[in-house]
Specification:
CATH topology of the largest domain: Rossmann fold
Helix content: 40-55%
Number of strands: 7
CATH superfamily of the largest domain: HAD superfamily/HAD-like
Order of helices and strands: EEHHHHEHEHEHHEHEH
Strand order of the largest sheet: 5-4-1-6-7
Largest sheet: 5 strands, parallel
Radius of gyration: 19 Å
Strand content: 5-15%
Length: about 240
């Protein structure tokens, strides 16, 4: 097994988790915006959650990336709304309002010592990146989150599926990551010298192994990230 030089991180459920207040407020906004006040907020939130899971699966199987507005239409359809009367402008307005809500109720760090851990990795010479599939939330907004948490400084680059046009575990997504990482080593970085870490067995672990990289499937809610890194051969000073 090659020595690890570069570490790639998934973002959702690996480093951050959704803010519960955002989930509730988004469901309330959706209900109001599309005249669904007769439905309980809990029902709307549940349909959001289920649709998110379905769309993640679609993206993982096809390798493409669904647009948030396509996902909103799927939710409306499941809530028995006639899609032929849905105004596209209203979809755009809801998306913009959702982004404002996301800024008000940003995601939460899973581990409070994330910055320290990344700082230690950087100090030991590892280069780092984010490789993340997006759904309702665009990569642009996630970049802001990392900037707000002052974590962006530790990553040499960030790749999001709404920007690349492909989703993990598609080979193209991992190829894009390898190409960007290799430039940090004058093109001499081997696939096997990259470790990708994430919570999804199919998209993260499976995608990394298929690309000839090392992979680590983690659950940071059960065990500190430092222990998962240690198990993968990355030792912190």
């Amino acid at each position: 097994m090659s020595a690890i030089k570069h570490i790639s991180f998934d973002l959702w459920k690996t480093l951050i988790r959704p803010n519960p207040a955002f989930i509730k407020e988004r469901a309330s906004l959706f209900r109001n915006r599309f005249q669904l006040k007769h439905l309980p907020i809990e029902q709307v939130a549940a349909v959001f959650r289920d649709t998110d899971g379905v769309c993640n699966a679609i993206n993982e199987i096809t390798g493409r990336n669904l647009h948030p507005q396509e996902m909103y239409l799927m939710i409306l359809d499941r809530l028995q709304v006639n899609l032929r009367i849905v105004d596209r402008q209203k979809l755009q307005e809801f998306q913009e309002e959702t982004e404002a809500l996301f800024n008000r109720f940003p995601p939460q760090l899973i581990l409070p010592d994330t910055a320290l851990l990344l700082q230690q990795l950087q100090a030991q010479g590892y280069t780092l990146n984010i490789l993340c599939n997006t759904g309702f939330i665009k990569g642009e907004l996630l970049r802001r989150v990392l900037r707000h948490e002052q974590l962006d400084q530790y990553f040499q680059f960030q790749l999001y599926s709404d920007e690349t046009g492909c989703s993990k575990p598609a080979p193209a997504m991992f190829a894009a990551m390898h190409a960007a990482a290799a430039t940090l080593y004058q093109g001499s970085l081997l696939n096997g010298e990259i470790l990708h870490i994430g919570d999804n067995a199919h998209a993260d672990l499976g995608g990394a192994l298929q690309a000839g990289m090392q992979g680590s499937l983690i659950n940071t809610c059960r065990q500190p990230l430092s222990k998962w890194l240690h198990a993968s051969g990355v030792y912190l000073a």
